[in-house]
UniProtKB/TrEMBL annotation:
Ranges of residues in domain ANTAR: 126-187
Protein name: ANTAR domain-containing response regulator
Record bears the keyword Transcription regulation: no
Matches recorded under InterPro entries: ANTAR, CheY-like_superfamily, Sig_transdc_resp-reg_antiterm, Sig_transdc_resp-reg_receiver, WH-like_DNA-bd_sf
Sequence ranges assigned to domain Response regulatory in this UniProt record: 6-120
Amino acid sequence: MDRQLNILVIESDETRAHSVAEALASDGTCRVVILADTSGLDRRIAEMDPDVVLIDVAHASRDVIEEMAVATSPKERAVALFAPGGDTAFMRAAIEAGVSAYVAEDVRPEVLRPVIDLAIAQFATVRRLRLELEATRRALDERKVIDRAKGILMRARGLPEEEAYALLRKTAMDQKKKLAEVAAALVTAAGLLG
């Protein structure tokens, strides 16, 4: 890794928190901040803007994980959770909330860095998939609007589909706009007139 990772450790037990921080900072590749008090967590995390949030929860409920997951903004950063006990329902809730790596055991120094690396890799994969899905949905929505605009032109001008598409494309180029923008304007105008 080229730069130092900023890791926020959420742990209420001071001894455990310092043990985790020492283990992570020992190789010099991590800058670790400990947060014991979780009040105002979302605001404090936004201020710190860590690369990874590591949560060590000895006795967590679904409400706690949902609150922490929302606060840690799992869509913006990797979140690793250590929660001993192996409660399957709790694990599912954590993963659905966006936790990148879930470890069903106590924190051990020798697994910290591999778990952090796993969380970062998993986060990157999920983020890439989310962005691809958003792009695909956007493209599909644009395609639907373009098809509607073609249909409007075909009915209004008696054009075949290819000519209606060519007219939309030419108009977009002439106006230096995206094809979907021109199509959306046409669909909106037709809606106002019809």
